[in-house]
Amino acid sequence: MKNLADRIRAVAYLEGDFVLRSGRRSSFYLDKYRFETQPVLLREIGDLLAQRIAEVEPTAQRIAGPELGAVALAAAASMAADLPFLIVRREAKDYGTSNRLEGICEEGERVVVVEDVVTSGGAALDAVRALRQAGLTCDTVICVVDRGEGGAEAMAQLGVRLECLLDADALRLGR
């Protein structure tokens, strides 16, 4: 994983003064679009997510990714795992099918959420809630990077386990 951390850091790790989605301020920012739009990195991350899904949720029937940031990750993991995926919109669209979940699923199926970067866990938890509301079973979120700022604890309160490929220290310190 050190090699992956080094390559993600090289293209996506920024230092400065940033406001995160959670509203918190941070001296570093991981620009997920910089690694999600690189085919070699995206392919490798998709393979690693598929491996982790097989390890921690071997009975998963689908993968889900919250829009917009995790959609490319969900697609890459879907191809690597040979599992269909869903896109979880922030809210139901107000035209066409008015879906919040895009893709095909059946009530009761087991779904794993993949996410890019988790800070407070807000986007991932919103996705889990939407999946559960649709009658799907979702107990696991797997992210590329866990910033270690309360996301795992927030998920645990809803009975959701957070797994990560890398933590923020691995990116900051090159471990």
What does this structure look like?
39% of the residues lie in helices and 29% in strands. It has 7 helices and 8 strands, in the order H-E-E-H-H-E-H-E-E-E-H-E-H-E-H. The strands form 2 sheets. A 6-stranded mixed sheet has the order 5-4-3-6-7-8, with helices on both faces. Strands 1-2 form a two-stranded antiparallel ribbon. Helix 3 (39-56) crosses helix 4.
Quick synopsis:
The protein is α/β, with parallel strands linked by helices and about 180 residues long.
Q: What is the residue-mean pLDDT, rounded to a whole number? A: 91
- Counting helices, strands and paired strands, the structural category is alpha/beta
Q: How many helical elements? A: 7
Q: Which runs of at least 5 residues are low in confidence (pLDDT < 50)?
A: none
Strand order in the sheet with the most strands: 5-4-3-6-7-8
Give structural attributes.
single chain, 175 residues, alpha/beta, six-stranded mixed β-sheet, two-stranded antiparallel sheet, 7 helices, 29% strand, globular
Topology:
Elements: H1 2-12, E1 13-19, E2 25-30, H2 32-36, H3 39-56, E3 62-66, H4 71-81, E4 85-88, E5 101-102, E6 110-118, H5 122-133, E7 137-146, H6 151-156, E8 161-167, H7 168-173
Helix pairs in contact: 3-4
